[in-house]
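hi! just following up on the protien thing from before. the input was this:
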Amino acid sequence: MKKMIPALFMLFFANACKNKKNIPDVSNIPITVSIERFEKAFFSLDTNNIVPGLYKLNRQFPYFTNDFITNILGAEPLSDTSKIAFIAARQFLSSYWPARDSIEQKFEKLGWLEKELQQSFRLVKYYFPKYQLPPKVVTFIGPFDAPGVAITQYTLAIGLQLYAGKNFSFYTSMQGQEMYPTYISRRFEPSYITVNCMRAISEDLFADKSGNKPLIEQMIEKGKYCYLMNQFLPEADDSLITGFTQKQTEWCKKNEGLIWNYFLQSNNELYTIDPDIIKNYIGDSPNTTGMPDASPGNIGQWVGWQIVKTYAEKNPSVTPLQLMTMGAKKIFEETKYKPG
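and the predicted 3d structure came back as:
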């Protein structure tokens, strides 16, 4: 009996922490994720028999092969009258074989990813039951300038070439750094896959139409996406959702009041529509110009998230759907955000 008390206490404590986060029970929502490995089938093609091989691949993956050929490799669709698709596929197979070998070793098993996506998909369905989730989840290895996540007509497609780990040889090479400086490539870790999938689904649910709005409204719109991703990933660390380092996240939390005062004292920059000024606060960069070096880039996104969180806390009856469709100006005016 004495040995059971600590165990029962830990169970109670764990449930209390979970309930404190208001995580809904979605275990009964019937969703199962089974990832299909397109890259394994593609890289098993014989370059000397590329034509029949690609047609066979298309029969195996009719919902993704032409998307891969056209949107990832940038060639024409498979056709009896055009050789471009076959040439592009053969060239890519030959040039990316060494990278493929290293990446596939890192992702030999993806059961962990299936579990993460399944839980997040259930939460998507819980909050947005009418949303049609992609019927297939497919992994691929594409050129390094291809997206890490894409939603096609039939799939949620995950480009493993952008999740090989921050120290992967291409990312640290001169060519890799020209494409993806360290402040970007440090996020090319497997832990970002589910986060980026949920960002893609969030943007699919609610298109960002804030492009011509004042800075403060764009900050709040970006913050809405962080808020929504947090609903789909309630256990994820804030740094994963924002893309900040842990130190940058801690700096923001410690200096929230000072950050907001900076905006209030910056000559009405909150209401600017100047694209260069806006980019400084909601663009991807090592840090924010005008703030200490410890600050992250895209700090406006984080401030917007804090405003949205404050509004949600003050209005617990507002659903994610209502909040996401609410005007940023209304959220800002009603929140009266004033961090300590």
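The two ends are 47 Å apart (CA to CA).
Residues 84-106 form the longest helix (23 residues).
cheers
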